[in-house]
Design goal:
Layout lengths: L4 H9 L3 H12 L3 H14 L7 E6 L6 H14 L4 E7 L12 H4 L1 H4 L4 E7 L11 H10 L4 E5 L16 E6 L12 H6 L2 E4 L7 H15 L13 E3 L8 H17 L2 H27 L2 H15 L5 H14 L1
Parallel strand pairs: 1-4, 1-5, 2-3, 2-4, 5-6, 6-7
């Protein structure tokens, strides 16, 4: 059944999870008629957006991101908040499919009335996020969710792009997980706002403390991302709900500081501008594919690049020049 834009908006505003999911599916669609309706929907819900705390959560596979999100989400709900989880699954480079299994890994959180979990495929988009994650956040904000938690795919240095759509960037660390201090990318360290060393117990508490000390020393050599904010390195266990209260408090402190210094709105403005630049590129490419002669030229230059007739960047430059000349 196809829903009108007004029906979807009414469903979003009333917290109807089925219609929220339908709206997100519409925004994720690449069909031309769906894109038109999605644009209308997003324009109409804009007045109801911007009131959430957007938290990006990253870490290597096995760091316990899903467990952390489930425990943190339930903690936020116990404090009277509504929580939306956007769990980004890596897409297959072969068939573009993804596992989308996060809902099954967050069974307890999924049962909560004030929780909404949406697994989405990254579809090969760089940065550990799906290409419509920003727009999906807008829908969740319009639905009244206080916290938007984004679980990223944890793919490495490009992961820092998640910072471009969130207010808080949380890095989950584990002991002995193959990502010891010397293996942590400087790019991630420059972007983090909070670090949580997860899966800490009596058997590895001393190792965890040593790792915390090393991380703090490393952070001392990195220029602060936000003035007057020293990145906290906290210890705990998401599985046993240890250390989460402190994370919850630190997030609140960080957001309060950003608002006090007026950085909160400034950063969000910059993020919106980056989304604008991204969609300009997307729409230019889409327009090009609707022009037969330009598409032929595009494919010919692509063939030249793949056959290494000339440098791929040269072929791209030649095509772009032709695109604007025509």
């Amino acid at each position: 059944m196809k829903f009108s834009t007004d029906e979807l908006i009414k469903g979003i505003r009333s917290g109807n999870k089925r219609l929220i999911a339908k709206a997100i599916t519409l925004v994720e669609s690449k069909k031309a008629e769906h894109r038109l309706q999605a644009e209308e929907l997003l324009k109409k819900i804009m007045p109801f957006t911007g009131n959430s705390v957007r938290v990006g959560i990253t870490g290597v596979p096995g760091a316990g991101k899903s467990t952390f999100i489930e425990s943190f989400g339930r903690l936020a709900i116990s404090n009277g908040k509504k929580v939306a989880v956007l769990a980004i699954d890596p897409s297959s480079a072969i068939n573009k499919g993804s596992i989308l299994g996060d809902k099954t890994r967050m069974e307890e959180l999924a049962k909560e009335e004030n929780a909404f979990i949406r697994p989405s495929p990254s579809s090969g988009f760089l940065g550990g996020v799906a290409n419509t994650t920003f727009e999906t956040m807008m829908i969740c904000e319009a639905a009244g969710y206080d916290y938007i938690l984004i679980e990223t795919v944890g793919v490495g240095q490009s992961e820092v792009l998640v910072a471009d759509i969130t207010d808080v960037f949380l890095f989950l660390k584990i002991i002995g997980g193959g990502d010891e201090l010397q293996g942590i990318k400087r790019g991630i360290m420059e972007m983090v706002d909070l670090i949580f060393i997860n899966k800490v117990d009596q058997d590895n508490i001393q190792k965890a403390k040593n790792t915390r000390l090393e991380l703090k020393r490393a952070l001392d050599f990195i220029p602060p991302k936000e003035k007057d904010w020293k990145v906290p390195v906290l210890l705990g266990s998401a599985l046993h709900n240890e250390g989460l209260d402190e994370i919850y408090t630190k997030i609140h402190e960080f957001i309060s500081l950003k608002k006090k210094t007026r950085r909160f709105d400034e950063v969000r403005t910059q993020q919106a501008e980056k989304r604008y630049e991204y969609w300009v590129q997307e729409y230019i490419l889409a327009m090009m594919k609707r022009n037969e002669s330009l598409e032929e030229a595009y494919l010919q230059h692509k063939k030249n690049a793949s056959a290494m007739v000339s440098n791929p960047s040269t072929e791209a430059k030649l095509f772009v020049e032709k695109f604007f000349r025509d």
